[in-house]
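Entry 14. Ran structure prediction on the chain below.
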Amino acid sequence: MKKKRILIAAGGSGGHLLPAQQLSLSLKEHADVVFAGHRLSQSAFFEHDQFPFHSIEAAPLSFKRLFSFAWISCRSIVKAIRLLRSFQPDLVIGFGSYHSFPVMTAAVLLRKKISLFEANCQLGKVNRLFSPFAQSTVAQFPLQSTIDLVPLLPWKERAPARDKREAKQLYGLDPDKTTYLVFGGSQGAAFLNRAIPAALDSSMQAIHLAGKEERVEMVVRFYRERGIAASVKAYEPEMDSAYAAADFAICRSGASTMAELIAYELPALLIPFPFSADSHQITNAEFLAKKINGATMLLEAESHQEALMSKLNDLIDQREAFQEALRVYRKECEGRMSFAARILGEK
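Output, structure tokens:
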């Protein structure tokens, strides 16, 4: 059977690149896959040695830099057209963000078959732009009736569930104490680093991911001053262990985080990153908190110490209800056809 030729247009954050790479791994036995996007050669989220790729420059749309956007886009669209004519893909898959714009534009101009993936609870700008031209648009959350639903992220085999007491001990924490997992990524952690240690008390303990190495010492000092036991790291490559150790999460509301909270049935206080594109993190948090009823949320602008402490009390009081809601929704998502199966099943 002849292998399909698939071009994946992706770039930017891990939220775009990680699922794109997981899809590629799922397809590798049945398709020849090539990546194309902005600054792939420089991205810390892209496995340069594992996937063939072409870096194609892109620029965000800015009215202040409209000429620069137009010049870069035109030049890069021409480069993308040459790539598509050379590679001759059977399908071009867009994972959103302006990093994929020139490649997706070239695919439309050459009338290539297009599919889109949206990780968030609303379509991003680039996916909205190209959705009228797409043969299919798939998502992990129900955006609208025309969207095909695929399994929740990540699209890879999860590690076996770890015992909660054992997981807490891995972090040097008391297995009997209520444990909060606090994280916000490299961009969104700064506010949480300051606000959350002040909202907890000595009856609690924390696993706190500070986002950057240079922030760790400061966060350690905050917890020490409050007399709170905490395991503080810049980031955690083994998030399965962190989720297993936690009784609650206090975090931002990126798409992958939403999927993981559901998978681990972990009640959370969501504080959406206020500078996310199109306020998509607010939409994500509202979906989990208001539609699924599996979390509580608080806007950063309203997150003074008294409000934080009130929300943490809500988490404790409603823990069982939140967990049950997450469990119900997780089961509803089981049995969805994978993105890879959908692609390979197309004629």
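The chain has 13 helices and 13 strands. Will compare against last week's run tomorrow.
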